[in-house]
Amino acid sequence: MPQNNLTIKQWSPADQPREKLRDQGARFLSNAELLAILIGSGTVDMSAVELSKVILSSVKNNINNLGKLTLHQLINFKGIGEAKAIKIAAALELGRRQRSSDINERPIIRSSQSVFDLMAPLLSALSHEEFWILYLNNSNKVLAKAQLSKGGITTTVVDVRLVLKKALELGAIGLILVHNHPSGTLKPSPSDLDLTRKLKNAASTLEITVLDHIILTEKTYFSFADENVL
To answer: Do 174 and 132 form a contact (C-beta atoms < 8 A)?
Structure first.
């Protein structure tokens, strides 16, 4: 078993994920082997691959759940210091951003499912709440998406004037509000309802329509428009 002061090249062939990736390609590596490449070394008692298996086992080998671990939670694993925890967090964030990238720079919103498909890769695995707005043109193409708040939703953290200013700058005629519920509940809170009404009323004075408000969780969503509560 490799010691923590040995380089990966000094490990046995079975514990050399970097070489395996180089020779066979990334898709042939297990989750533990990919994570081991990030952390680079293990402890006196276990290799980087074995340490990675311990970390993944704690989240039931679910990469989305791994992405929800805070730096502090990662550092609690023996052998994971701040630098390694930061590498893991950075790699997972890159993965989220890659999933949220769309080949079509202006995707068309055809239904509430389209909104979920577009925003779930960005929001569904987060451990905190974020509130976003999609700005649409008259063909329901997304002109831009913008984050309005992070960590919670209240009417006090959203500047309606800035929302509408951006809409006018983009020439948007439609808005779709999107936020996530890390708790997994889909029921709109009083703040969700209040903020929706506030934005809808303000936008209507400029002939801009709030088309929907989507609350999403990791696997599903709630649409204000579909449920006739908009």
So the answer is: no
The more confident residue out of 27 and 66 is 66
3-state secondary structure of 33: helix
Whether the CB-CB separation of 57 and 47 falls below 8 Å is answered with: no
φ and ψ at residue 138, rounded to 5 degrees: -75, -5
Whether pLDDT at 96 is above 80: no
Instruction: Tell me the C-alpha distance between 16 and 26, whole Å.
Output: 13
132 residue type, one letter: W
d(CA 82, CA 12): 27
On average, the pLDDT of the chain sits at 85
Q: Token pair of 126, please?
A: 């987060």
Q: Do residues 150 and 130 lie in contact, with contact meaning Cβ atoms separated by under 8 Å?
A: yes
Query: Strands across the sheet with 174-180, in order?
Result: 142-150, 130-136, 174-180, 209-216, 221-223
Overall average pLDDT of the 88-108 stretch: 74
Has this prediction a pTM greater than 0.85? no
Residue with the two structure tokens 């533990």: 32
Rounded-to-integer distance, Cα 120 and Cα 115, Å: 8
SS3 (DSSP) at 49: helix
